[in-house]
Design brief:
The protein has helices at 7-29, 31-37, 51-54, 59-82, 88-108, 113-116, 122-127, 140-160, 169-175, 181-190, 193-200, 212-224, 231-255. The protein is an all-alpha fold and 256 residues long. Helix 4 packs antiparallel against helix 5 and helix 8 (140-160) crosses helix 10 (181-190). The protein is globular and about 65 Å long.
């Protein structure tokens, strides 16, 4: 457990995990092409994402929930012990942050539906795109707006803090309790910017491809933008890994 909360060790393990997921994703998505090239592999017309890893309640989503759960435990235990020693402003910041993570956590597990398997209530069944008991699948407003705010928080805090002109040390410590967080932000940007650039500049020909050149271009852009896996799920596990370490450093900063 002590090794896990050694940042350098944990980050290495996490990066190895990401590399392993990408390698498996690449093989699974392009298996039909790879099996044509490598004769020792049995040919299968197989493509797409590995459901065990990337689907709802798959490995990646399970890890996301675990990261959030650990973050919540950190903050609740800290809040119970130290709230009297922190300024009112500091308490408000942590309370808002904890509330946001709790909401995110319960949305991820569909407020317990993924754990207990109840039938989706009629209200959500009519409105929810995935027939689940959650809010973020009802509308893009409830999904994209919080997601974009989370993206900014996790990927740009180390940069935006330089423009915050305030004497409130508690605010700066809350935004960036440790500079190590910027390394996770860099990881998030690596897996976000290529897809954004390709999408906004409309570089990929799109599907269906009209000729062999367009097929090659589509494959090239799929690979460099990491769209051979469920990119949104990969980004979310990065967000949650950031939240985990942010919570850890926030608690440690206020314990010193």
């Amino acid at each position: 457990m002590n090794n896990f909360f050694n940042f350098n060790f944990s980050l290495k393990i996490f990066i190895y995990l990401i590399i392993l997921l990408l390698f498996e994703g690449l093989l699974h998505f392009y298996y039909y092409k790879i099996s044509q090239i490598l004769e020792f592999l049995p040919f299968k017309n197989k493509t797409g994402f590995n459901s065990f890893i990337w689907s709802e309640n798959g490995l990646v989503e399970f890890l996301q929930v675990i990261f959030l759960l650990i973050s919540i435990i950190f903050l609740i235990k800290f809040f119970k012990k130290k709230y009297k020693e922190i300024s009112i402003f500091g308490n408000i910041l942590i309370a808002i942050y904890l509330s946001g993570i709790l909401y995110y956590f319960f949305e991820e597990i569909s407020w317990g539906q993924h754990l207990f398997g109840w039938q989706t209530p009629e209200f959500f069944s009519h409105l929810n795109h995935q027939n689940e008991t959650n809010i973020h699948n009802i509308s893009s407003i409830f999904n994209e707006v919080p997601r974009n705010l989370l993206l900014i928080w996790c990927s740009l805090s180390f940069f935006l803090i330089k423009f915050i002109k305030t004497d409130l040390t508690s605010l700066k410590n809350f935004i960036l309790p440790n500079n190590n967080l910027k390394f996770i932000s860099f990881l998030i940007l690596i897996f976000f910017l290529p897809n954004l650039i390709i999408d906004k500049l409309e570089l990929a020909p799109g599907h269906p491809a009209a000729n062999d050149n367009e097929i090659l271009l589509n494959t090239f852009f799929e690979i460099i933008s990491f769209n051979f896996i469920r990119l949104s799920e990969l980004q979310e596990i990065l967000f949650n890994y950031y939240i985990l370490w942010h919570s850890y450093y926030l608690v440690r900063k206020n314990n010193t």
